[in-house]
Amino acid sequence: MSLQIQKPIITVNWLNNNLDNPDLIILDCTIAKVRDKAKDNNNKRQIKNARFFDLKQVFSEKSAPFPNTVLSPEKFQEKAQELGITKKATIICYDTFGIYSAPRVWWMFQLMGFTNCAVLDGGFPEWNRNNYPTEIPSIKTYPKGDFQVNYQPEKLKFTKQVLQAIENKEILIADARSKGRFYGTAPEPRNDLKSGHIPNSVSLPFTEVLKDGKLKSEKELATIFKDYNTKKEIIFTCGSGITASILALSATIAGIKNTSVYDGSWTEWGSTKNLPIHL
């Protein structure tokens, strides 16, 4: 029987104890931050046996007008199989910032109907602090996997659906960007974007669910989301879908089930004509 994930977040101790399990697949999900000029895969070392999950160049739709657009289910399945991912895999996602882009990959697997997947709490920094095994990254090929998609479209939202949700009091739209960007007092990292936020959305910066590069405790997360758990659904948004996924992960840990991510997020909303914007 394959190694089963009980919660969507795991510790470095758990990963180290299961490092030699044949069903374990560790994905380095690192991307550069928007304001970071460094290259995407610039880490000099990685967790032992990790595979690079190329979120930008392979697992996002490059022909789409907005960044980080998720692949179609068919394309995702094809690329996951090329990475050697199997139906019985236990997938652990991490990044070199602690908690940043790994939750996005976790959310993508949820979207594709694969739940035996978790995020490494604290990511590579926490792993490295514990002196657990690392290696220098190298180009590797893997036997083709038999990964199968079971698409869950309700976890993905588009602009038309978000526009309809604005007036629905049973749906909450929560924005993971900083309060400065939400209220238009701080500039957007992309110069062509308007400032402000989606009407009737609430500000919940992703930094509020983190502490020292790790997620806050389950109890703390439950407190953060306690005012939202009566909603029929929560739509998470951010700049381009990355940090919204951190909130989606946190809400799941807090026991909230009906969550989704607005894939285009503010990059799409703030650059599309005739959409309402509040400051």
Structural class: alpha/beta
Mean pLDDT: 93
What is the CATH superfamily of the largest domain? Rhodanese-like domain
Number of domains: 2
Could you give a quick summary of the protein structure above?
The chain is of the alpha/beta class and 279 residues long. Helix content is 24%, strand content 16%.
Which labels suit this protein?
279 residues; alpha/beta; Oxidized Rhodanese, domain 1; 2 domains; five-stranded parallel β-sheet; 9 helices; 16% strand; globular
Structure description:
Helix 3 (102-111) crosses helix 8. Residues 37-42 have low confidence and may be disordered. It is globular, with a radius of gyration of 18 Å. It has helices at 12-17, 73-82, 102-111, 123-129, 159-165, 179-182, 218-225, 243-253, 265-269, and strands spanning 9-10, 24-28, 46-47, 51-52, 90-94, 117-120, 134-135, 156-157, 171-175, 202-203, 210-211, 214-215, 233-237, 259-262. The chain is of the alpha/beta class. The termini are far apart. The chain has 9 helices and 14 strands. The protein folds into 2 domains: 9-151, 3-Layer(aba) Sandwich (Oxidized Rhodanese, domain 1); 154-269, 3-Layer(aba) Sandwich (Oxidized Rhodanese, domain 1). The strands form 4 sheets. The chain has a 5-stranded parallel β-sheet with strand order 1-6-5-2-4. A 5-stranded parallel β-sheet has the order 8-14-13-9-10.
